[in-house]
Design a protein that fits this description.
Elements: H1 6-17, E1 25-27, H2 30-39, H3 46-78, H4 103-115, H5 123-134, H6 142-169, H7 173-181, H8 197-211, E2 221-225, H9 247-257, E3 267-272, H10 275-289, E4 294-301, H11 308-316, E5 322-325, E6 334-341, H12 343-346, E7 349-353, E8 359-361, E9 366-371, H13 380-393, E10 394-402, E11 414-423, E12 431-439
Parallel strand pairs: 2-3, 2-9, 3-7, 9-10
Antiparallel strand pairs: 1-8, 4-6, 5-6, 10-12, 11-12
Helix pairs in contact: 2-13, 3-6, 4-6, 6-7, 8-9
The chain binds S-adenosylmethionine.
S-adenosylmethionine (SAM) binds next to β3.
């Protein structure tokens, strides 16, 4: 197994801070993209490809700002740190079909606009205010801007629901799967993250272990593509605790729990294009290197019809990588656990700036690569390019797990191993389908 070039990765962090591309991060070359280009009937030559991939990188990164606007709308709808007004049930019901905000959403916009100029130590409000000020929004314009943003967001969310519904009604399961798998291919790039997709990953890895598709002691290096930042996700994210990232820890713990690797030996590199995500991870790793634990808050909605397995996952999360910490004071209706992650393990997480649909990493290879709730933001061609980038970062025999059903026109180097459905709720309304590939 090749080892990650960790010293170079550390140098890379400094480059990422400066906004430069790391020496190990390259735009995908024409040769590397060739197989995917052919599979999709694309005819560009090498110079055209080189120009295209750079433009593509800029266009993809330009979607980050719209993702921030979406996160701000989620904060307006669901935040409890700046108002006692009830949370709105969902973004779809925040506005009528003409985009007019309903009274409860309008009231929340007013509360958020009043809170933004005086954020105090509320880091989400600070983040939203700074973002809007950078955009040139004056304090007196905040209310109107938040309202327009929420109206746009609500209509967009309705559009996604309608698109999914009509795809399912079409009676063509393949077409419906395609719609689901690329649903957000024009949407802003969200950072939101939550705990339970990691349960689906652990459950799938366990099933693979049982079937002999993955071996004990085979994982030393893990790549998490798009680790995310828990800002205020609509389903089970909240804002009563500091911003946090979960997946790098969850995957490290899953590997250890299943005996795929040993804690302390397992290193995790995160790949993300969002500067806020990368800055958060850098600061976490730096504090961990100085001995400070990273505290994760883990809320579970009492009203959820969680399966016993999902509940057990929540109850036991963090037992190996940390110890219990005092939970943050939560709104009614939530159970919260908190875990202080041992700095020894947190310091083994290394963030790298990379756009997986346009760039490749040459700084080392991985035994396990994870990408959940990220590839759904891309079309089939972009997904195939991401698979090429992922195939190139995997060791031979290494595995790649995603919760997006990916295109059949995939790089030959990735062998499809199968799909596993994991429900979090007893009625099956909430869960993930995990697809698994192995690097030949
Ligand atoms: C919706 S979050 C999902 C977080 C986490 N994986 C989860 O399932 O909870 C998507 C993450 O992927 C990142 N992302 C989106 N497009 C990306 C790309 N092309 N390359 C790298 N990261 C990307 C976003 O910045 C964000 O951190």
């Amino acid at each position: 197994m090749r080892k990650i070039n960790w010293s170079v990765a550390a140098v890379g962090l400094a480059c990422a801070i400066a906004g430069a591309m790391l020496p190990e991060v390259h735009f995908m070359t024409f040769a590397a993209a060739q197989e995917v280009l052919t599979a999709f009937g694309r005819t560009e030559d090498a110079p055209a490809w080189d120009a295209w991939v750079r433009t593509e990188d800029r266009e993809v990164r330009a979607r980050i700002e719209r993702g921030v606007e979406d996160s701000i709308s989620n904060l307006v709808l669901y935040g409890t740190s700046f108002t006692a007004l009830p949370r709105v049930a969902s973004a779809e019901v925040a506005a009528d079909s003409s985009g007019e905000l309903v009274a409860s959403a309008r009231a929340r916009v007013r509360a958020a606009a009043a809170a933004l100029p005086i954020p105090g130590s509320n880091e989400r409000l600070q983040f939203a205010r700074d973002f809007l000020l950078r955009r040139g929004v004056q304090p007196k314009e905040m209310d109107a801007v938040l309202a327009a943003n929420l109206s746009r967001f609500s209509l967009e969310q309705r559009g996604y629901q309608e698109k999914l519904k009509s795809a399912h009604q079409s009676g063509d399961p393949a077409a419906a799967r395609l719609v689901g798998a690329t649903l957000f291919d024009r949407r802003g790039l969200s950072v939101d993250t939550s705990l339970l997709p990691n349960f689906a990953l652990e459950d799938s890895l366990q099933a693979m272990l049982r079937k002999g598709a993955i071996a004990r002691d085979s994982v030393r290096t893990i790549a998490v593509i798009g680790p995310g930042l828990d800002f205020t996700d609509k389903r089970d994210g909240y804002d009563f605790y500091p911003l946090q990232t979960i997946q790098p820890f969850a995957v490290m713990e899953a590997a250890a729990r299943l005996g795929l690797g040993k804690l302390g030996d397992i290193r995790v590199v995160t790949f993300d294009l969002n500067p806020a995500v990368n800055a958060h991870l850098r600061s976490m790793a730096k504090r961990a290197q100085a001995g400070t634990p990273y505290v994760l808050q883990l809320p579970l909605d009492d009203a959820g019809d969680w399966t016993p397995q999902a509940t057990a996952y929540w109850e036991h999360f963090g037992e190996l990588i940390g110890k219990p910490a005092p939970p943050a004071a939560a709104p009614k209706g939530l159970r919260v656990r908190a875990v202080a992650v041992n700095p020894k393990f947190a310091s083994l997480i290394e963030p790298v700036d990379l756009n997986v649909v346009a760039q490749v990493f040459d700084g080392g290879k991985f035994d396990l690569v994870i990408a959940t709730n990220i590839l759904v933001y891309y079309d089939r061609f972009q997904q195939a390019l991401a698979m090429e980038s992922i195939a190139r970062m995997l060791n031979h025999g290494g595995v790649f797990l995603s919760n997006t059903v990916l295109p059949a026109q995939k790089p030959e180097a990735l062998e499809y191993l199968g799909r596993r459905s994991v429900s979090y709720s007893a009625l099956g309304a909430y869960g993930d389908d995990i697809v698994v590939y192995r690097r030949r």
